[in-house]
Amino acid sequence: MAKVSVYNIEGKEVDTIELNDAVFGVEVNEHLVHMAVVNQLANNRQGTQKAKTRSEVSGGGRKPWRQKGTGHARQGSTRSPQWTGGGVVFAPVPRDYSFKMNKKEKRAALKSALTSRVEENKFIVVDEMKFDEIKTKKFQTVLNNLNVNKALVVLEEGDKNAEISAKNIPDVKTARVNTINVYDILKYNTVIATKAVVAAIEEVYA
């Protein structure tokens, strides 16, 4: 089992904990990780882009000039793709880009992402993230104490003050145990989690 240090919000080491290898010590499956990222980005796409084909643009009902004898190339319609104002050849139409991954694949991808963060020493555990008031400056001070800038901070249900305090800090995103995903874990340089969150993740995914 991997051992990691536990820090307080002042950035001082106060304890160490062992991480469950079933979640934080698996063999990293890069293919599943990549598939999970593509899956999330594809599912987020609106798919509402649209351009008109030659059958949808207006005009072009008659032949612009006769077939032979003009010296021009033959043309059947002014709405052909080569004409200004003509239709688009393979025009995009509204479509659904989403695809499904099964639950086992999603879990394996998430475990792989968490394991990679632990292996790279980019997984920081803090004892708790309790704030008496909503204060962005205080949250920024915590990040400075931990020597972190771009971070995904996974909080407990009751850490509402900390969650709101982090909202206005660029390059910081907060999440709950049930909302963490592979894309966010990889997008941010560091993952910060409380001891309670680590226990909850192990309980859910082990």
Describe what this molecule looks like in 3D.
This protein has two domains: 2-45 and 99-205, Ribosomal protein L4/L1 (Ribosomal Protein L4, Chain: A); 46-96, no CATH class. The model has no long low-confidence stretch (mean pLDDT 92). The chain is built from seven helices and six strands. A six-stranded mixed sheet has the order 2-1-3-6-4-5. It is an alpha/beta fold and 206 residues long. Residues 43-85 are annotated as: Disordered.
Beta content: 5-15%
Structural class designation: alpha/beta
Q: In what order do the strands lie side by side in the largest sheet?
A: 2-1-3-6-4-5
> Regarding CATH, which class of the largest domain?
Alpha Beta
Order of helices and strands: EEHHHEHEHEHEH
- Outline the biggest β-sheet: 6 strands, mixed
Mean pLDDT: 92
In total, the number of strands is: 6
Q: Can you tell me the overall shape?
A: elongated
Q: Domain count, please report it.
A: 2
Helical coverage, percent range: 25-40%
Assign the CATH architecture of the largest domain: 3-Layer(aba) Sandwich
| Uncertain parts | none
Task: Please compute the radius of gyration using only Cα atoms.
Answer: 27 Å
> Could you name the CATH homologous superfamily of the largest domain?
Ribosomal protein L4/L1
How far apart are the termini?
13 Å
How many H/I helices?
A: 7
